[in-house]
Amino acid sequence: MNQNYNEIISLLNSTSELIHRLDIDGTINWANSAWKKTLLVSEENYEGKSILDFLSEETRGKFEHIFPRIMNGENIENVECIFKASNQELVYLSGSVTAIIENGQVVGSRAFFQNVTKQKRAMEDLRQMTNLQEILMRISTHYINVPIHDLNQIVYDSLGDIAQFASADRAYIFRYDFKKQVCVNTYEWCAEGIHSQIDELSSIPLSEMPFWLSRHKKGECIEIVDVEILEDEKQKTRLKNEGIKSLITLPLLDGGKVLGFVGFDLIRNQRTFRIEEKNVLSLFAQMLVNVHNRLLNAMQIEKSKEELQRINESLEQKVAEKTKRNLSLSKNIVEQEKLVTIGEISAGIAHDLNTPLSTIKVGADNIRSILETLFSKQISLLTQNQLTRILNRIQTNQVEMYVGGLQLRREKADMLLFLSENFPVDTSEQEKIADLLVKSRVSKEDSFFIQYIMELDNRIQNLEVLYQLQMAYSQLATIKNSSDKAVKVVQDVRAFIKGETQQEKRIFNLKENISTVLGIFNYELKKEVDLQFHIDESIEMFGFEIKLFQLWSNLVKNALEAMEDQEQRYLGISAEETKESIIVTFENNGPQIPAEVIENMFKKFYTTKSKKSGSGLGLSIVKNIADEHDADLNVISDNKRTKFIVTFKI
Amino acid sequence: MNELKYAVVCVDDDPYILQMLGFQLGKVINQKLTLLEYFTDPNQALEGIGELIQEHIDVIFVMVDYQMPKMTGAQLIRSLKQKYPTLNCVMLSGQANQVSVDELKSDNLLSSFISKPWDEEALFEAIRPMIK
């Protein structure tokens, strides 16, 4: 009997099925090895415990349902329940439960279960993957069909869908801004109860996320399973402050270019992502890139449409006016481009005006203070004749604008020597005289004047007045010069704007013509451009002066834009006159222009400057004006230089 | 002649501005002890200031325009400060790039900033702490 019992026990212990026997109140009476092993319960320490302690929440509810039925003597097949192992992991079991009846009385129950956790998990995974794929399908059809202005909402919604299925608490998209060396949070989805971060993350320096960019560039995703064990302290602190336990980010790659990344944070629980999940997430990332590109294209198209419409409208208007005013269409376009150009150069004009105006203002102040000094003490010490003499000298002598201190010192030493040899007076006076002579720009070759001064009793006073007046005059000259400069700026701009008045071709000087344009661009050109402007003053041209301003200014503008990213900028402008033609060359060191661009660059609305305000008209105006002058246009571009050559036939 | 101890240097590509400055600075600077030197070319200024310092002349301050060909005033000040960290640099400008001026200020490289057109009083106010 005993041996039989032991044999049965060992039989029950050797099966992979989980077997237990419960007392009538649910206390575990006995469990086999497989049971204990699966639920990680050590030998006999289930003793006295209720089966409820080993059930998941969900199954507990079910149990309360089933147990009374068994106690009624019922046997139940195909029971599915979820147990909880001592390490809290869930174990899925499937089997049957039967009542133990002795003497017609139910005294307990026994259950035989199979562990179906693996199958369950696989099915759960499969279900989840199917769901994810369904979402992706749905999103991708959405992305394709949705109107452009709804795309933002779709991106946001899909971010949420994907995040929920990846059981993430927060999902987001960042754009890399390489110019500013930061990344910018552009979209964010948060699960309920999760704090939004988007406002704090408007610009994270790339330096704070070491390796992210380089790994994203390689197309790798970045997965941090446990923020706590990060080595990089800075990153760890940042992520911890955001409450993140784990995260995964995937690059948004467009061709070889990384635009940004999409990422998912886990805040409540830490977790790893399975390879299949990563695959789906990277599919999603690719989808986002497609959306981004579609958006860009659409915006481009929209913009071109608007641009076209705008130009059309304005053209239509012009056509209507044309009958009245006999204006040509192309002039309208030229006009528009001119306005763009004027807008661009107005900052430069402000600078070009401010400088001479500064000089004028400061000069006026200075002259006032000189006059005050002169009249308050000095002038009264001189006779009428002495004053006349000084005034004559100043009016007939050109004064130098400024002399450096070192040169003054040298000249003064020289003058002292000269004075001590020719007009010996006491040393301290000599020093003073030499100083004033040099400062008044009287040289020792001017011995006649020096002699006149030295013979005066009040020579020091005379020299003081000479010096002050000389200063006043030289500042007056400067004011005059600066006013001329300011007037020139205004004239250049007016000549540029005036436009249409000239009806007939005229003879004019080529160098002056191009100089006016360079005057307009003065400010831009001063900004680190090596300008080589060599045109023979003798070259005369026959044509429309104002229109050629526009031709040159578009070539200059084009060159400046082409060289924008260049460290060293070079702009060479030269002209050559032969028997049959005048050849004007604009040369810059911008990047090489591909042949297909050269082919199209003179067409209207053709532009490669997608990001800038390029209207695509500049070079078409060049072409128009060249045509009007019967001139040929040639472009030669290699990796060192780009040349625009305009050949006017004589 | 040998009592030259100090120097003040002005750099502006516009000689007229230098002339105006020279006149005004001449009112408050003792030219017996102090050399008033001007440069229209920032590269020459770099060289010239180097020579002065080599001759143990105390350069009280350097006044620099922002917009100049070849090199901006901000770049010039950076180069100067790198070589001579204690040198006082003043910017006098009408069209300075605000960002680079702010950067200079935040890097503590600028003793003062005067905008064009300027008042004589504002100029003296700005340089007074340096000329003692």
- Quaternary structure: heterodimer
CA-atom Rg of chain A in angstroms: 46 Å
Count up the helices of chain A.
19
Number of helices, where a helix is a run of at least 4 consecutive DSSP H or I residues of chain B: 5
Largest interface: A-B, 33 and 35 residues
The number of E-state strands of chain A comes to: 18
Largest sheet of chain B: 5 strands, parallel
CATH topology of the largest domain in chain A: Beta-Lactamase
Outline type of chain B: globular
CATH superfamily name of chain B?
Response regulator
Span between N and C termini of chain A? 130 Å
Question: How much helicity do the residues of chain A have?
Answer: 40-55%
| Main β-sheet description of chain A | 6 strands, antiparallel
| Number of separate structural domains of chain A | 4
What is the straight-line distance between the termini of chain B?
Answer: 22 Å
Class by SSE composition of chain A: alpha+beta
Taking pLDDT < 50 over at least 5 consecutive residues as the criterion, the unreliable ranges of chain B are: none
Q: What structural class do helix, strand and pairing data of chain B support?
A: alpha/beta
Helix share of residues of chain B? Answer: 40-55%
Biggest β-sheet: strands ordered side by side in the sheet of chain A: 8-7-6-11-10-9
Can you tag this structure with a few keywords?
heterodimer, A: 650 residues, alpha+beta, Beta-Lactamase, six-stranded antiparallel beta sheet, five-stranded antiparallel beta sheet, 19 helices, 18 strands, B: 132 residues, alpha/beta, Rossmann fold, 5 helices
